[in-house]
Amino acid sequence: MKRLNDTEYEVLELISKNQSMTRMDLSLELNISPAAISKTIKKLMDELLVLEDDTLSSKGGRPRKILKINPEYKKVIGINFGSGFIDISVSKIDGTIIETRRKKFQFKAPDKLKTLLTDEIGFLLEKYGKNDISGIGLAINGVVNTKDGSSIFSPHLKWNNLKLKDYLETKFEVPVIVDNDVRSMLKAEIYRAKKLSNVMYIYIKDGIGSSIMINDKIFEGVHFCAGEIGHFVVNPASNSKCKCGKFGCLEAEYSANMIRNKVFWEFEKQGIDSENKYLTYKEIFDKALEGEEPYYSIVKEASTEIGKTVGNILNVLDIGNIIVAGDIIHAKNVFFKNFERGIDGMITQDFGGVVNIYPTEFGDDVEKYGSIFLIIMNLFSGEKIFTL
């Protein structure tokens, strides 16, 4: 396998991140002569790695052609651990998802989960060919050491110091990158969708997590714990015990799972048999959006209280952008309006800052893209794992 030179990596990185990059754009961006850029592009096209696609109109002169990464050149495996399941996705090198396999599990013993992982990875490597897989991205909830790719602690999976990167790379001889799931989502969002430098990313589903980017750098913390907003205690007198062992944590009070529990507790209190005790989170948020009770009031309260916690954190961090992901976004304005109201109630208005709130660009597939982009964003920059 042959590595590329630095200029070739830079060219590929710019083409990968931008959807309308031309030769002239590359020349200006890298301060390299058009002739040198053309020579580099010719080599990459000869290797079938870069294609010329649609044509841009030009004021005078010849039309300019858009460059893009050949999506068929290689593939990426992305693995996301959910609550009681793993999603294993295969994508093209441009991030287009080809397939996703979901495997449910009830066990949490590390050895059994490692066996499940290796069986699924082995199947996909055989199906697509190991030489056609650029790398494996693994996104896990909890505390992840991004330096050595180990899962330090996962409150959902009950893992401690599991050396996943070393284990999988030794077994399959394919590059592996492991990261926290919410950090992975933020990285995907910034790499492909949102061009922001300062962001707080909030993910609300079975738990509540966040990731923080300050001045274009994701803040991990000394112990890789930065962003664990779900374990911010908001009600010390609560009887709701969090998976971390404390009482009254934000996610133990207002996660999508707790919202669902509160809906059914309200039905029980009123002596009403719920039509369906197995409503999905999305169905609950759809009912809240329609104004149906008790869904609406419970979702409204949770949205406001989550906003209050975020507002307090923003007083410390002074971040002007928030991206929200997870099933909660299906509640649309019921969530966003009250979430913003909660922030406004806590943030110090005299600071004069404006907070922009956005939903994820990846919708319900954000978790899959998070794991996939761990590899894509490290193909041509970062770890530069791509080889010809």
UniProtKB/TrEMBL annotation:
**Gene3D superfamilies given for it?**
3.30.420.40, Winged helix-like DNA-binding domain superfamily/Winged helix DNA-binding domain
Q: Where does the record place a coiled coil?
A: none
InterPro entries listed in its UniProt record: ArsR-like_HTH, ATPase_NBD, ROK, WH-like_DNA-bd_sf, WH_DNA-bd_sf
The protein in question is named: ROK family transcriptional regulator
Could you name the domain of life of the organism this protein comes from? Bacteria
